[in-house]
């Protein structure tokens, strides 16, 4: 399998806080790559670097054979990187359908006027995108809430809708920031199944941050462990689990 | 038309007939990717033909059984029809059954080929494969998640269809030849009864026994090709098969399959079926949703709703029955129809319902009247798997909430001296599969089927079902005692969750009550009555008064029915704990296990028949986290007023 994304020596700081220090790792095509670590380890910062929200002071990112000193969110999306957020960023007043349709934004070619007139190309385009959205709705089994405003849905379903919106962009690389946070066991199992299905069905490469170790160990192919902004381990779930440095980080050995 | 009926004696023949005479009419619809897709009778028949060809190549022969584990989908009905074309016997199984429950039917009927909806069902069939050596082919519908499955038994529906189309090109006459071989007396389908006692039994129905009653009932209700039904109940249940298969084949109406089981409400509104079936619990859920939404509505709307519902309660039923109603009431009702009932029917998806049935269990009179009062022609019917559903139907204009109506034309009914209802008619099943002993137990030499239900004819000759025969007892004076009938009457009150009545072999009837914590909790909150939980609530004198009122209403009702007037409830107590399936007090389907409860709470039962106004209980309580503790308290016992029987009143 070829390398889809590699992060080389990335460092990121906010004033005196050093969020990431010379972190390097790579992501292979069609794998599920997990980033784990205790609170404040720099996981979300890493994800934000990958999709261009944060600009690292040092290091570079290679994505699909191209090298970037930093990414720009717009550019990242155009290149095929989509993400979900830890604290759900959906349009609460809009329906599930419209939220997912919003994820198709980058694929739409017609201008505002054409869409408002609902003629020719705009009409065809809308139908084609609606079909794509309906396929995602079918895939995620959310037909019953298609027309429901997102704000009225329970948390677990909102997470699923957010995944749907990310999928609508037909991403090559999908970044999931704590997809299972705050879910009950059944919702977690469902979400695991969907993540595995996404990889299987769409062939999407997935990078995910997750706190639930059981989930991480079950579904990811390889795991990066961060602690205080540094990478302390990298490997298969089994190898990482037994790594003494990882145990220390999680069990809280005094840091000199 | 008459000769048609004689020639078209099997489902495949009917299918081909519809493809010829109404080829362009919709046969089946399904919502897929948000859009309703339609198959005409012609398209449906073409798909069925191709499938039949392919299944023949897979070795399905006349008389072979074929398992189906699938929700209501056009492909399920296509496969089913294809199997019948070949003279095979479809055996639909419940989709929510666990793998081990599926093993028995497959072994019992040595099933070789099965159809499964998706990965979930395929997994179950693969799990039982070692116990079911006969099973050699599993056709699946939805390929999702199946990419890594390599079992040689598996085959995709698309591949099967493609193979069938190819084969059909070589031998276009094949299907017609096969269909022509079928006759009305052939087995058409087999339905496994749920089997709450012992192993499940396969109920064998012929084409004739399914088509006959379906046609009679369709003629009775005036159903035709323009009708539409929403198929949303499990296909393994015979009712679903009759409504969404047999009657569709008889009349040529259209079956609509919902998008998923969660979207039924929305799909129903979009399709607006003209023919409808719902068990009481579904109707109750719908009403609850309506009530909740009305609570949230604006004050004006709530006022309108209450006002017009009062009018509907008063005259709606009478209007539907074609009884005389004053001009003023008629005008008010029409106004109500404009502002309340019409929109309400629309929200429920029942704007176009010509006839709706409910059956399966006793329906609360208020619930039943609600639907009828807003202009939905909801009626009760009576039947079972063994009778192909239609035994009794309430005719238009003669609808009552507590009977199931007179016999359907062609069906003979009588009650045995033990009050058991026995039935003879064209819809009777042939036998239980490979179980002559069980068949002989319920079907006697003259062809009478023993339903196991006890009841009697009321004054208008309508059948009134009161209980299962085995549960019916008699009081010490020899009069009828039907505990379930009483319990149902009690449970129709929202405040009563469960009731257990005692009285067999005793002087009078007494009862245990379980209050409904939500309904009574709500009631208490509205009265600013603080309480800590179920047990606290159950011991309040106010709650006892509330329950007593319910019981006295039941007693007043019972007094009006001479046959069971002696079953009025004299004393009751509210149990200190909720009856629970985990403690063995209820079955998993929430039916009370009367015998077990009587034994477990023998002390309380004795106290009911004693004179004291309270009884001391000490009980082991198991908490949800697994800990257990003891509970001890004095339970109050209360008397309820009883009424003189109606006959006696009239005489006095």
Strand content of chain A: 25-35%
**Average residue-wise pLDDT of chain A:** 90
Widest sheet: strand ordering of chain B: 4-3-5-6-7
Helix share of residues of chain B? 40-55%
Large-scale geometry of chain A: globular
**Protein structure class of chain A:** alpha/beta
> Mind summarizing the main beta sheet of chain A?
6 strands, mixed
Biggest interface, chains and residues, is: A-B, 15 and 11 residues
Gap from first CA to last CA of chain A: 40 Å
Q: What distance lies between the first and last C-alpha atoms of chain B, to the nearest angstrom?
A: 59 Å
Poorly predicted runs of chain B: 648-652
* Number of E strands of chain B: 28
Question: What would you note in describing this structure?
Answer:
The complex is a heterodimer of chains A (256) and B (652). Chain A is an alpha/beta fold. Chain A is 39% helix and 25% strand. Chain A contains 10 helices and 10 strands. Chain B is of the alpha/beta class and 652 residues long. In chain B, the strands form 8 sheets. A 5-stranded parallel sheet of chain B has the order 4-3-5-6-7, with helices on both faces. Chain B has a 4-stranded mixed sheet with strand order 2-1-11-10, with helices on both faces. A 4-stranded mixed sheet of chain B has the order 12-13-14-15, with helices on one face. Chain B is globular, with a radius of gyration of 27 Å. Residues 648-652 of chain B have low confidence and may be disordered. The chains are: A alpha/beta (256), B alpha/beta (652). The interface between A and B is medium-sized, with 15 and 11 residues.
